[in-house]
Amino acid sequence: MQLQPMAAERLSQAAPPANAAIAIDDVTLRFVTPDGHMMTAIRDFTMTVAHGEFACVVGPTGCGKSTTLNLVTGLLRPTTGAVRVMGNPVTDISRDIGFVFQADALFPWRSVIDNVAAGPLYRGTPKAEAYERARDWIGRVGLGRFEKHYPHQLSGGMRKRVALAQTFINQPKILLMDEPFSALDMQTRTAMQDELLGLWSEQKSSVVFVTHDLEEAVALADKVYVLTAGPGTVKSVYRIDLPRPRVMADIRYDPKFVEIAKVIWNDLREEVQLGQSRTLQTGH
Amino acid sequence: MQLQPMAAERLSQAAPPANAAIAIDDVTLRFVTPDGHMMTAIRDFTMTVAHGEFACVVGPTGCGKSTTLNLVTGLLRPTTGAVRVMGNPVTDISRDIGFVFQADALFPWRSVIDNVAAGPLYRGTPKAEAYERARDWIGRVGLGRFEKHYPHQLSGGMRKRVALAQTFINQPKILLMDEPFSALDMQTRTAMQDELLGLWSEQKSSVVFVTHDLEEAVALADKVYVLTAGPGTVKSVYRIDLPRPRVMADIRYDPKFVEIAKVIWNDLREEVQLGQSRTLQTGH
Amino acid sequence: ADKITIIVGGMEKQIYLPAVLAQQLGYFKDQGLDVELVNSRAGVEAENELLAGAVQGVVGFYDHTVDLQSKGKYIQSIVQFSQAPGEVELVSAKHPEIKSPADFKGATLGVTGLGSSTDFLSQYLAVRNGLKPGDYTLLPVGAGNTFIAAVKQDQIQAGMTTEPTIAQLLKTGEASVLVDMRTPEKTKEALGGPYPAASFYVQSAWLEDHKDEAQKLANAFVKTMKFIATHSAEEIADKMPKDYYAGNRDLYVQGLAGGKAMFTPDGRMPADGPPTVLKVLSTFSKSLQGKQIDLSKTYTTAFVDAAK
Amino acid sequence: MTAISPTADHAAVRDASIAIAESRARARLRHRHAMVIGLRLAILIVFLGLWELGADYNFIDPFFFASPSGIWQQIWSWITEGTSQGPLWLQIYVTLEETFLGFVIGALGGIAAGIILGRNRLLADVFSIYIKIANSVPRVVLGSVFIIALGLGMASKVALAVVMVFFVVFANAFQGVREADRAMIANAQILGASPFQITTSVIIPSAMSWILASLHVSFGFALVGAVVGEFLGAKQGMGLLISTAQGAFNANGVFAAMIILAVMALVVEFIITRFENYLVKWRPAPFNEQGA
Amino acid sequence: MTAISPTADHAAVRDASIAIAESRARARLRHRHAMVIGLRLAILIVFLGLWELGADYNFIDPFFFASPSGIWQQIWSWITEGTSQGPLWLQIYVTLEETFLGFVIGALGGIAAGIILGRNRLLADVFSIYIKIANSVPRVVLGSVFIIALGLGMASKVALAVVMVFFVVFANAFQGVREADRAMIANAQILGASPFQITTSVIIPSAMSWILASLHVSFGFALVGAVVGEFLGAKQGMGLLISTAQGAFNANGVFAAMIILAVMALVVEFIITRFENYLVKWRPAPFNEQGA
Ligand SMILES: Nc1ncnc2c1ncn2[C@@H]1O[C@H](COP(=O)(O)OP(=O)(O)OP(=O)(O)O)[C@@H](O)[C@H]1O
Ligand SMILES: Nc1ncnc2c1ncn2[C@@H]1O[C@H](COP(=O)(O)OP(=O)(O)OP(=O)(O)O)[C@@H](O)[C@H]1O
Ligand SMILES: [Mg+2]
Ligand SMILES: [Mg+2]
């Protein structure tokens, strides 16, 4: 069993390999708080995702997971340190990326099918083809009957599935997902996970997947990053060498899975408790 | 073991007891779809929550859970059937109710503390007292350091916790919660669940709690409603007679808990699969 | 024929009546002219358009030709419609103590606009009666309704205006005539000479190259002046569009009957007219002070003389 | 598990009661519509009645403020006999043409400027000060400048209508662009939209309600601009009609022309509202108006 | 598990580099500010230079369009010698007072009407048609009506400024109220807010950016209203100054007065912007301008 924290990766200040799909190199990011002070959201953060690798990120709420994804997309710029995608420094928002936002970012004035077809249309796909592919993806996320609905006419879970289809249809080389499945029931979630793994193995894309569900992380990932309570930095990195292809419905009953989950869980719990006691201390 | 579906409750067309805290009586609600047709969101829906009862609602995504809560608050009106709260027909939005929305509904122009203090201030609590209570609740949800932050400066999970504090501070007699904990990590979620149970038993309030996490539902509830795939109606009702007070961190290891969860899970899975196959059929 | 555009400083105003009347009588057409009348109540607009070359002629007050010459712009009157300003200094019925311009001391005098002929004439009347600038206040109140409202609200104790505002105020008895400048005789009495007012003028430069058109225009206007001289107010009113007296036809006719005398019978500039204008203007207009004005360049009677 | 299929009986009862509920909802809607029209008419009648009575008994001086009956006679005579400047419909047509051109040019210009400056911070910082300066220029003075520069024809009226419309539309388009949801823009960008595509597919739709709000008010402004232009100098148009009526102490004529202008504005307003409803059909209804 | 506390060395390096990064960010900001000012000035200078040259070489006739040097002389002579109507500052004061009163009354009225009609559908349906009619009335005609009704004093100018401001502010306040997020309103309602509290604590804050957008444009409009009012009849004020200059064919005077008006508008604009920044400090910055 090669289950070992790869914390060395975090501590090493050597530049990450140039051929990594995503390389976050010793990044610190600070925000201005309402009272004019600076607040460090993430600190000394180093993370590397190789081509075709599936990385999951877990950590206590508010520790900087979404911030990390925003750095990779170019929506936020690091205060210090460097972020590289496909070997190039991130200067603008990249078109190679697919990003499922944590909050809703659908276009409310477009129906489901127009939302899903947006990506291909932006990228110049002929209309007929774009809509055909959109229809396909809407079917895959189980919304065939809702093609013509507008986002406000959908339930929360349905909207999330539209967002997934919207991202998946672009077949991005790099896929960033921020708690994409948390609004879905177990069954739909399993189906979506299978869909995601299929897309990933087919496209050989690189994935960074943020979740609160540790079991989900272990079930999906090649590598799990555990972050510390905010200001977030990498606490430990675990390599998950469960065999692939993995079948989501069954993997949870694999004894190796259970063991891995337990080890990471203990590591994480320690951190979460630390984070909680820290905020509670300064509670009032 | 008294674990039996109480489906009889659904089938009986007798009016629900007049003294119930919440009584939804044979309600059907239809929406106008974009192509001008009518779509039934929930159908022949009957549900009763007694005073001081904790009811959980589970069901496949898009089956009408949020719609049901909106009926109770008065935000939506039934097409046919009647909704009564505390014995009175719902005509307007009630002040006895606390509602944690599925999506974000914080006031973006108010800082965390102003958001949390809103309820007491609306209800005429003196300013000093309102802010003192707000500070207390902000501490309880672990956001002491973020009092002055505005919602857009918080992470998704933090925003959800502000919404919880905002609702809890009013100590509502009737508490409706729509997937309130899905954006939280396991540890924070457990702490919030304990907070919720404490509030509930202290206030003797009546709770309707929507979740996708069946284990959460079983751990918290007196009664679990399983809904059918949309148009939603009650498939089965389960009474959960696990002893109280329940400690969230431990209850999952109770063998009785595991058994109950398994029974309901089988019932639910059947429904979810049905729902999925139905949408997939009409997929494209 | 090319289209000739003429701006009229208020087509419904009686002082400018010959312009519309000529059109109504078909005199322009008789001369083979294609004339288009454009309404513009603000005199400045009309002059600017003329100078910019966008229109060929303006029906307006003669004094503008003098004023513009002081600014180096040459325009000249080729047909003179009236030899009296057609204006009246009215005094409010609330102020019977004002019996002559000499009593203006401390009063507020209504004028249509600062820098307008009513402004200069009012001041001239006051000064001629021994007052100094500063003894009275001038208030621009426009013409028409706003003038009447100002009288009613006692914001002006006296004021100078034209028909039909005069007739309207006289009818209701809210004001009476203090100084009448609707006839050549009374104007001479008030100002010491005839005061040529409404006229048809063109840019001097245009006139050089368009003697032919100018002659035809003069022909039409002179014929119109003759028509006015030989017809009663009633007959003239019949020729005018109905909207111009929609308020009250009797009033219109009555005003016209009272004011008809101001029109020249033949369109000719009275010889002693221009000096009077220069005298009035140079007393008050800053822009004229210290400027040499060549009055002979402000009008010509050549076309009127040649008119058939 | 219990069998849960409802009995056929119950389904029939449900369907019947839904049908009843829906027909009731429709009746409520019809009733509400009738009430709105009724109230509007009631207000109009009371207003006109008081005006007429006031004029009859000389509380309101009809010399200054006209009277409804006089206004109606004036409109009727214009319709049947024409105006001093020619047939009434021609005056309406002339003014409408100027207004419409001015409205379209001003609105398009305002939208374009608003979007360009709203999307580009540097341009906004540099140029917005000049737009503010331009907006403080009195329109009547501008009117004279336009007449000098463009002549007394249609162009100067159109220009005046343009400057009445431009600033209102610009201000709203600019702010609407600034208010566009940043997450949505980011999403489009990541989905592969070029800056131009972001503008057309995210910025414009989200600024649409801002732009439409400004169009509602600015058609009236365009009308005002055209009329003021005609006031300053014209040979046709409603503004000249008003000017002539004013000069002839014909208060009925002044008010009659204004009422015709109001009707023109309402007709166009109706069209804009139609257009708006078409554009924003994706919008959620407020809660409570939602279920059928 | 490995020890993860960073070495003291590394922490020091990080803090130093953060300090550098932050001072660099500040320098960038300063540099940008200087560039904006520079560009504005450059545009101004080029514009004035071309104008002056055009006037000198008679491409632009200074008789109609004045010239920068002539305008400056005029302003200087007004400052040093006063105007024909008295000292310049008095004219400015008079116009500013009228404008300010009209702006405040019109804006408050527009906001109030917008909120009331925006919150009450029935009132909106019944009354909005009348507001639209009122908005189509040419302001110049209204001007004479106001002078008749209110006299030639300040009241009529204020009224004219009010009607210029009211409709713009109303349209935006109305739409802003309609756009308020329905989930947020529902939340406030459930938290116990009375309809009045909802209005003050949800509706007004969310309509705020709409209202502010309209205030930006409508101060200029109020100024225009006051000046037009003075045009129609006044003893004092910038409008009279313009009207006198026009009557005397003094183009320099006309443009000088307009420039003074523009400066007035810019000063007030600056104050409104300050106020706006204070009110909307809760707003998220666009992505990319966010990290420090
Ligand atoms: N614009 C901002 N201004 C100030 N602080 C911010 C801003 N955006 C985020 N933060 C802070 O950065 C920290 C990290 O936020 P982030 O959204 O990355 O957390 P997260 O790990 O995604 O949490 P969650 O699991 O709850 O989504 C939080 O403490 C948050 O308050
Ligand atoms: N305004 C609307 N117009 C039309 N259909 C609607 C509208 N609102 C909701 N619906 C439909 O009603 C059904 C139930 O929606 P609801 O939000 O109650 O689902 P839910 O059970 O809460 O799902 P989730 O778990 O995903 O939140 C869905 O099929 C949805 O498409
Ligand atoms: Mg997050
Ligand atoms: Mg829901």
From TrEMBL, chains A, B:
The cross-references to InterPro entries, in alphabetical order and at most eight, read: AAA+_ATPase, ABC_transporter-like_ATP-bd, ABC_transporter-like_CS, ABC_transporter_ATP-bind, P-loop_NTPase
Mind telling me which SUPFAM superfamilies this protein's record contains? P-loop containing nucleoside triphosphate hydrolases (SSF52540)
**Pfam families of this UniProt entry?**
ABC_tran
Q: What is this protein called?
A: ABC transporter ATP-binding protein
The molecular function GO annotations come to: ATP binding; ATP hydrolysis activity
Name the family: Belongs to the ABC transporter superfamily.
Q: Does the keyword Nucleotide-binding apply?
A: yes
Instruction: Say yes or no: keyword Nucleotide-binding present.
Output: yes
What keywords are assigned to this protein? ATP-binding, Nucleotide-binding, Transport
Q: Which SMART domains match?
A: AAA
Q: Where is the ABC transporter domain?
A: 22-254
Q: Per the UniProt entry, what species is this protein from, by scientific name?
A: Mesorhizobium waimense
TrEMBL record, chains D, E:
Q: Which SUPFAM superfamilies match?
A: MetI-like
Q: What is any one GO biological process for this UniProt entry?
A: transmembrane transport
Q: Which Pfam families does its entry note?
A: BPD_transp_1
This protein's GO cellular component annotations are: plasma membrane
Chief location of this protein within or outside the cell: membrane
Q: Which PROSITE patterns is this protein grouped with?
A: ABC_TM1
Q: Which residues form the ABC transmembrane type-1 domain?
A: 92-272
Kindly state which keywords UniProt assigns to this record, in alphabetical order. Answer: Cell membrane, Membrane, Transmembrane, Transmembrane helix, Transport
Q: How does it sit in the membrane?
A: Multi-pass membrane protein
Segments spanning the bilayer are 34-51, 99-117, 129-152, 184-204, 210-232, 253-272
Location in or out of the cell: Cell membrane
What is the similarity comment for this entry? Answer: Belongs to the binding-protein-dependent transport system permease family.
> What is the official name of this protein in its record?
ABC transporter permease
